[in-house]
Amino acid sequence: MEALNSLEQWDDFVAGRYDPTKKTEDFRKFDDSAPAGVREFYRLNHAHQTRDFVLAKKRQYGARTRGEMGIWEALDYLNTLVDDSDPDTDLSQIEHVLQTAEAIRKDGHPRWMVLAGLIHDLGKVLCLYGEPQWAVVGDTFPVGCAWSDKIVFPEFFAQNPDSAVPQYQTRLGIYEEGCGLRNVDVSWGHDEYLYHVVKDYLPDEALYMVRYHSCYPWHREGQYSYLLDGHDRAMLPWVQKFNPYDLYSKSAERPKLSEVKPYYDELIAEYFPAKIAW
Question: What whole-number distance in Å separates Cα of residue 182 and Cα of residue 185?
């Protein structure tokens, strides 16, 4: 991932890609109108996100052996990151999560949901561990079973070695009907990583928002229903409630950190210790 050289570069990026007149239905347009960098991102993502790769990354990062840091420390890391998979904004990641959290807070949702909005992208610190963007961001999807044609740019899966594994190309693949998403391997990225980091601290509703907010084939397109269990179905409305805040709170208006930080200091301390394992 290329980081911004300075905060002042944001204005140039926003002027080039953000359209303040954009309508809701124009967000997430993944077609020939998408920037070339977005298409290239998904070509790499779909070619390399094999089940073996996912399992290897779970082993590598699931034990949380990268050290300890607080929530604000992780947020500070995101200050210079711009998500190449996102066609809608070039604002910094910390501004995006503050926009998300502030919109949730304004609408009077539970405090844990506001916190989920604040931290939901913190797993992108994977970029700072040397992971390429295609292994950090972008839409997520089950591996080990047939890919849905509702996944963005499904044609790029032809380059994935799992396409030559017959068992992975069936409806259920290696899974059982109704096994539950917790038993399904999903493409590796910041969602899954952050879930393992925060799973001991937040309620299930918040954890589903963290773990599956990028799984658009499930929560937006209604795919993979045959893998869900009752708990997944109960949590789905919460993920769907969260998703618009992740998407449509994006704007050129920037929250003032100095004004909102005291609130978030208190909120973070309510749920997290000063340091957590990453």
Answer: 8
Phi, psi angles (nearest 5°) of residue 137: -125, -175
All residues at 6 or more sequence positions from 166 whose CB lies less than 8 Å from its CB, including other chains: none
Token pair 């937040």 is at which residue? Answer: 202
Residues 6+ apart with CB under 8 A from 171: 145, 146, 226
Is residue 57 within 8 A of residue 188, CB to CB? The reply is yes
Query: How many Å apart are CA 213 and CA 35, to the nearest integer?
Result: 22
What was the pLDDT predicted at 246? Answer: 84
Across the strands, what pairs with 69? Answer: 276
262, with CB counted inside 10 A (0-12, 13-18, 19+), is exposed
Question: What DSSP string describes 166-192?
Answer: GGGGSSSTTS-TT--GGGS-B--SHHH
Domain boundaries, the chain: 33-277
DSSP code at position 72: H
Write the CB contacts of 156 (distance below 8 Å, at least 6 apart in sequence): 42, 43, 45, 46, 47
Token pair 């100095």: residue:
258
Please, are residues 16 and 89 in contact by the beta-carbon 8 Å criterion? no
pLDDT of 145 strictly over 50 = yes
The predicted pLDDT at position 247 comes to 79
Token pair listed for 140? 């997520």
Give 186's DSSP letter: B
Q: How many residues does the chain have?
A: 278
Cβ atoms of 7 and 77 within 8 Å: the answer is no
Encoded amino acid at 247, one letter? L
